[in-house]
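With this grant's support, we have settled on a layout for protein records. An illustrative entry appears below exactly as we store it:
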Amino acid sequence: MYSGLEVRVPFCDWRIAQYLYNVPWEFKEHRGYEKGLLREAMRGFLPEEVLWRKKSPYPKTHHPAYLDAVTRALRARLEDPQCPLHTLVRREALDALLRGDEEVQWYGQLMTRPQTIAYFLQLDHWMEHFKVRIVL
């Protein structure tokens, strides 16, 4: 929007997202596809090859330099005792993630280990920026 480019993403309408977030999981996985119910609802509006194609995540972050960069950044953040993640996530779990003790497959194909590490960096930044504090 800053550059005058407006992108329309009809599946991101908040009403659709709110409705589909609240339906039972078996509807979401209709026909074995993520967003299966949404895809079924769009039958007749989209070509079949578009309607049922496998998700293609963007951007791809398979480059080893990316994994190295996000790993170093999260390790550096965890050295700070005031890092907000300390109140939210067990340090041992984050250390295991950084070491690559087990392969991460979170949220389908979209979040493997590099993306999960980047997610925690983004969460940390958000918590720090908005001064979010966890109260027990």
Notes: The chain has two domains: 10-51, 64-129.
